[in-house]
Fold:
Amino acid sequence: MRAPVTDLPIMLEEVSVLAGDAVLLDRVTLALAAGSPTVLIGPNGAGKTTLLRLAMGLVAPSRGRVSWGGREHVEPTRRAIMFQRPAMLRRSAAGNIRYALAAAGVPRAHRKARASELLALVGLDTLADRPARKLSGGEQQRLALARALAREPQVLFLDEPTASLDPAATKAIEDAIRTIALRGVKVVMSTHDLGEARRFAGEIVLLHRGSVIERGPADAFFAAPQAPQARRFLAGELLL
Structure:
């Protein structure tokens, strides 16, 4: 039997992303493999969002090579991304998910049941008929998370999923992400919150000025960071 096609590992080899004269990513080499969540940290402008978009396949490298499961130029059918400020369609919460399921090619007869499953996964099953744009900020984030799962992705990219949320909404999002990761989905997430990084990460990647400063197991990183920039960042100092 042929092995199932997989997008993992995602390999970035000496990748740079340029925007005019600006260097968004600078010769990044990184492997994203199956397993526990990988969390990207670093100051604003470090390149976290660009790296997520690159690994998703939304941005092409200016230099270097990106591959998914050993293949290049692969359509993102096994990948999904949730942006920091997701747009809500002018539909109900369930309608937003059914739309995503239709776009993913899920047969019409299966969409209602699958939408209900996804809403329950993120704790929005009682709000299925509420207009999506009338949901609170935290509820919209959870709906966006459920919508991203419509493709049943193997890899889920999350860009600051709890930014600007209150503690209760943050916990609801984190609980949903934890459940998704336990189901075998590879989560790659950026965050500005070091507490959240400690709670989630199996692996930490610290970015600064478009470069990977340090990466490794989360427990080792937080216990004894090796790079001087990492030590300063964990101490709360500004990286300029």
Remarks:
- The CA atoms of residues 11 and 31 lie 5 Å apart.
- The mean pLDDT is 94.
- The longest strand covers residues 22-32.
